[in-house]
Amino acid sequence: MMALFDVDKTLIHRSSAHENAFRHAFREVYGVDAGVELIDYHGKTDPVIAEEVLLLRGLEGEEIEGQLPRFLRELREYVKHNINEENIELIDGVEEFLSFLKSMDVPMGLVTGNLREIAFMKLERAGIAGYFSFGGLVVTVLTGIS
After folding, report:
1. Are 131 and 28 in contact (CB under 8 A)?
2. Which residues partner with 112 through β-bridges?
3. Per residue in 15-31, pLDDT tens?
4. CA 114, 40, 19, 65 torsion: positive or negative?
5. Distance from the Cα of residue 12 to its chain's centroid
6. How far apart are CA 66 and CA 76, in angstroms?
7. In sequence order, what are the residues at sequence separation of 6 or more whose Cβ sits closer than 8 angstroms to the Cβ of residue 119?
8. Are 49 and 36 within 8 A, CB to CB?
């Protein structure tokens, strides 16, 4: 048996650093002033969120894809440099539940739309990264993006 978790709205409430990272990366890489609030982003991967927002702002698929690796690097770097400034709140009962699973020797991992490094930065800041030994962006298996 193992337990798999999403990050946002499952383990933590939200990360403003992650949300702000999108606005920063859109501006730096594509020259577009936009944020994730333009779409319903819950349950989507970071690359899909970026694509949907950029399509809404009039960019073309090839233009988006060509700069996506750079965009994802900007996203990670922004979070890395800003995550320590925020107080990430756990969903009520999360730490107790994770502690219980750990006491039962249940391996725990992540299945999330967050880039792996961003997911673990959020969980580190929230104080629960140590519970998770594997996982990250769901699309990693399909495209190699991580």
Report:
1. no
2. 137
3. 999 999 999 999 999 99
4. positive
5. 11
6. 18
7. 7, 110, 112, 135, 136, 137
8. yes
